[in-house]
Amino acid sequence: MLTLDAAANSFRLEDLETPRLLLDADRLERNCAHMRERCRALGVALRPHLKTAKSLDVARVATGGAPLGVTVSTLKEAEYFARNGYRDILCAAGIVPAKFAHAARIQRETLGSLLLLDRAFEERAATGAMVEGVLELLRRAEDNPAAAPTLP
Predict the structure, then answer these.
(1) What domains does the chain contain, in order, with CATH numbers?
(2) DSSP type of residue 38
(3) pTM
(4) How far apart (Å, rounded) are the C-alpha atoms in residues 34 and 87?
(5) Which residue(s) pair with 72 in the sheet?
(6) CA distance 81 to 28
(7) What gap in Å lies between CA 96 and CA 125, rounded to an integer?
(8) Which positions ≥6 away from 41 have C-beta within 8 Å?
């Protein structure tokens, strides 16, 4: 049986209600600092994937305290981070046409989510439902990678 001490309170891991995120804060800080430094040394933008943590606190650690580019898996996650200051958001999972209105609302209300459309039919269907600017941004980035959004 695994037992942990947290803030001088003993508890048994199996007694915790789930889902629950348990983190080693020191390890998180170390790993994120290493990840940021490695990306800086390589000259690439860091875009941490927040699917598992779903946490503003973890996002702040991962991005070094600035609301830089992040990656999410769902529109609910995109909305959560957009409403909390993140403007450069990549949705790493393709979305179905039924979700375009939700995506457009996030764009309108937060002025900045970037979505990934992974199929041509999604782009065609999105034309009528989503903000045209997103599709134009994707087209420009595809035609000219230098035109892709950059992080501050």
Answers:
(1) 10-147 (3.20.20.10)
(2) H
(3) 0.66
(4) 24
(5) 91
(6) 19
(7) 9
(8) none
Residue of 46, 53, 48, 44 lying closest to 20 (CA atoms):
53
φ, ψ of residue 91 in degrees (nearest 5) = -90, 110
Which one-letter amino acid corresponds to residue 57?
D
Structure tokens at 14: 């199996």
Range 62-74 burial, b when 16+ CB lie within 10 A, else e: bbeeebbbbbbee
Give the pLDDT of the chain (152 residues) as one tens digit per residue.
233 444 446 678 888 888 887 888 999 999 999 999 999 999 998 889 998 888 999 999 999 998 888 999 999 999 999 999 888 888 888 777 788 888 888 888 887 766 665 555 555 555 555 555 555 556 666 666 554 544 33
